[in-house]
Every structure is written in C-alpha cells, then in structure tokens.
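Render this sequence as a predicted structure.
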Amino acid sequence: MIPKSRRKRISKAPVLPAQPNKKRGPKPRAIVEFPEPNSTMWGDRDIFHEALALHMERHGDTAWHLHKAIIGPKDRIDRKTIVHWVAGTKVPRSVTSLEILSRIETRYRLPAGYFAAKLPHTGRAGSGHTKLGEMSVAERRRMAWHLPNDFDRRPLRERREILDWVRKVIISGATDYRRYQAMAMRQRYALRFPDLNNIRPQVPVEPAEEFDLGELDDIELELVSTSRDAPRALAEEVAHLIQFKTATLTEIGYQRNGVWNEQTALQKVDHLGLLFGALAASPDGAVAGLGVPLAKLSVALLVFPAVWDWYVRWRERRRGFFTIWEVNMVQLGLAMTRADTGWLRQRPDLAHRLRQIPGLVSEADIQAAQSDWDGVCEAFYSHGMVRAKEIQRVAKVHRDTFEPIMVELEADSPIGEYRRIAEEIVRLMPSAGRYPRPAAEAMRSLLLIRLGLHLGIRQRNMRELLLCPRGGTPRSERQLEAQRCDELRWSTKEKGWEVLIPAAAFKNANSSFFAKRPYRLLLPDVGDLYRFIDRYIRIHRPVLLNGAPDPGNFFVKTVKSTSREAAYSQSAFYEAWRLTIQRYGIFNPYTKRGAIEGLLPHGPHNVRDVLATHILKETGSYEQAGYAIQDTADVVAQHYGRFLPENKIALAAKVINQVWAVA
C-alpha cells in the first residue's frame, strides 16, 4: 500500500463551457410574409390540390415551410394536414381549415376565395362554427348549411342579421300561415286514435272486407299536434264510423251516401281528434280549451248546435278569423246527421253515452236526445246548414298555396324557373367516390324535382312509386290496381323509362279525366334524365338503403342505425322535398347558394301549381293545363292555375300582334 505522502496528486481536467450543437444541412429559410414568385407566367388549375401544389412550387414553399409561415401559436392545424391537401387525399371542410386556406390565398396574393372555389362539393355543411350562441345540437346542424364560411369572423351585428334571415326565410318560411303552424305545433292538444283496426266496436257488424287502418299515425304535417290517446269508448265510436264509411258493402241495417278512401278516412280521424282535443284541453293553458273530462266525450255530442258553435268560435279566436276549414268541419257534422244515410242519425244508442257538461249540454238536452233522437239530429241539421253558409261568407284564405312559389308563377316560364333548382343540384353534386352518402342524397333530390316536373302527380303517388329495374318483370295493371300504386319500369318496346299508374291509385279516380283508364307516360330522355335514373338505381339507391330491406319504392330514405325503415311516410316525404328547396331552391345571399331569389320553402304539391300555370300562360287552355296534372279544367281553374287578367290579355295580344309583324 502506497503511503499517502508518496501518492501523486491527480488533477482534474478543467470543465469547459458547453458548445452549442451545430445542425447539419442548409440554414432554414427566413419566413417572408409575402414571398415573390419565381415565375409570373403560369397556367391555372381547376382541381384544388393541383392548384395548391402549383402555387406552393411557384413561391418555393414546402408543406413544412408553408405551415410555419401561416400557423399561429393558438392554431391547431398539423403540418400533415397541408401534406394531405397537396396530395388530394383530404380537402378543407371545417371553418378552421377554410380560415387557413384564406391565409394561404393572402400569402400568395390570390383573390379571396380562389382556392375555396376549386374545392369539390362535399354535400355537407361546414363544421366548427363557435359563435352560434345557445343552440341545440339539432338546430346547429340545421343552421350550418345556410351559414357562410366566414360567419365566425363577421361582426356581431352581421351574425345576428344572418341568423335572423335564415330562421325567417329558410327555416320557418316567412308566411303568416307558417308562423301560425309553428305556434300550433308547439301547443299539443289533439286526441289521437291509435290502432283503430284492433278496436272492436260494440255494435255487431259484418264488413265485406277487412279495412286496414294501420297508417292512421301517418298524419298530415299540419295536424301533428297530438297529445294523448282518446278514451276507449270514444275510440270505439270513431272506429265504427270509419268502418261504416270505408267498407266495400254497407252493413246490414245501415244506409250510406258515398264511401271514404284511406286518405279521406285518415283526414277525418285527424279532424275529429282536433275537435275532441279542444273540448278536453284545459281552459287555463295556452290552448284555452273547455276542460271537458275525457270520460264525458262522445261522438253523440256532435248533435248539439252549442258544441259546434263553441268549437268554430274557439278556432276563430285561435286563428283570428274563420277559414274554409271550419266550413268543412260543420259539413262533416251535417253528413253524419243527414236523414236516412247519416251515420250519427242511425246510432240513437249513442244518446245513452251523453253526460251533462256545464254551459254546453244540459240535462234537458240529454233527455230530449234520448226521447227524440231524430228530432235532435234534424234540429242540428237545420242549424248547421245556416252556420256553414254564414261562415263561408266571411271565411278568409290563410294558407295561400301560391305564396311560397309566387316568384316562379309570376315568371314568363314557371317551369323554366323551377328547372333551375335541378340545375343547382347538379352544380353542387358531390363526388360519389369520395362522398357516397351525400352524393346519393343529392341524386335523390335531383330526381324528386325532375320527376315532379315531368309527371305532375300528387305527393302520395310520388311517394309510393314502385321500381321495376331493367331486366325485371313489370307488374301487371291488375296487380298495381290491387295495390293502388304506380310503377316506374323500362319499356323494351319504346326503349325508355315509363310510368304506369292505374286510375284507382289517384285521389280523383272517379274523375272524368281518367274514364277508368290508366295513366301511362314515357319519360323523355332530356337533360340526362335517363343517365341520372340509371346511376341512382345502380349506385346511389343501394347506398341509401345501407343494407336495410328494400321496400320496392323508387324513392327511399337514408337508412341509418337509428332507423331501419326505408319507405317514406307522408310527413317524411314532405320534409325531404322541403329540405331540397331549402338547400338548393332558395337563393342565399350570404353563401351564394340556391337557385331562385324570393322563393320560400314548400312541399311537392306546389309543382302542380307550377305546371298548370305554365301551360295556362303558354296556351290559355284550362283543359290542357288539366292534362298536365291529371285533372279537369274546373279543378285547375279553382285550385291550381294562377291565370290573371294581364296574362290573358298578354296571350291575346301576342296573337293580334302577329298580324302587324307580318305587315
């Protein structure tokens, strides 16, 4: 062991200051706000990712350098996002991504919206709006389609202005009737009659055939204010009324005048639900009903004039004036109490279900009904005839069917104006390869408009249109008549798509227009119609079905995980058409989308007004206008054609002026 004295002291090496690591490679380029392009001559590109790559190359930018130049410390856009944009695997869609795209346009001194105009249409609304205030998720989703991409960057005043315009014009429709309808739907008061087919009326009956009322829950959009089920006794009475008016053969011991089809029966049930719902509604609530206990409700109440007077006056207070709707309701009461053939007139047993209602039905009224049912019915019949005439004299039109499409009806070519909606859908059609579901929904919207303009049929016939694809065996006329449906099939003889509708499938089947003959129309191959139909059947319709059972209808809903039912209901089909008009029909001054300025949301029935008015302006013939919508000249003159005196004068002047042109 070496003594400590002889050990050599080993000095530690001096600690040198740390030297900075030198990065290998070229020094990073400095960030320049507006880099100069290396070439002033360049050819524009129509495709977004090609145009972006072109301008990045012109300015010497890589994805990394461009990202560093435009992204701030609070932005959450990854560099790989720009890489995907340049490669064409992704496109900007969110509000944040479109803001970054705007910065790139500014950096390269390009016009505002240069890159955005080259983006493929996705068929989806922009996502990521943060300044919509307190809105539900559903309302945000509904609003997003109609908002400009720079909505969040606009001043508060402009944002409020845009939201007010969208709510007023696009969502609600901006008409008095739409505002009344929105109020009525919020106040639920009507009684519903569920599953009437399973209710056995107490009166023994032997109907000639079973009548299926399974679709009674598929009610009109205006009458969805159902609140609660009707009491069983009342439901039994209504079930017998429906059975009486819809059976093929009259029940033994009863007489009737006329038969209701399914749609008429559905409508009458809805109207009775509103009447009894108003009677049962609380007088202290927003509905301000009469507060009659459900147990006291009976169809027998409709033989008393006081009940009808209360109801029509209640509707006048609610709406502000009388309409033809109240006249039709009183006429329903008249039909039920008519001598010999009225259903209520032939049910004196219902008098025993009457109960006293203070201020409306007294004990003396009940005793009179039980002792002289025919006399009470006759007294109401006389009263109702007078009331119907009095109301009809002062009734006003609340739901002007022409109002939403007035801008088109006033045009020289109403069909030409409406066709612009189809052209707008084609312009905004998404890529089927990149966005299969939005593309399928857009193609369905396009064919809704196109077939509506070519056929001019009612909503139900459009909704129930069956499909027989090429190579399939079309249904016979007898099969379609039994189903009361129409069919789109390929005609090998005519080499084209044709629509066959038996007369029984029409609402006005007994009209002189049909003379019990079927409706057959060969669709014209104009405007790529056949190509659109073929692509819809082959590509888009399977996407919409999404593996769900095929109902066989040409138009099917978008089947999602929440609903596997592909067939349209009445209200769902109406909403599909209305959504098409909201997205593609109404011109939006903030997004520059939409075809027609001044148009308002509407349903498929308005296409018939467009067709009839167009033909009237071209020919002046109500009869020819009726040919386009499968109806008579009188019906066109009363309900569909808007043929004003100045239109008639202009048509006559055209003929007269030809003489002077020749001279």
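Summary. Confidence is low (pLDDT under 50) at residues 198-226. The radius of gyration is 34 Å.
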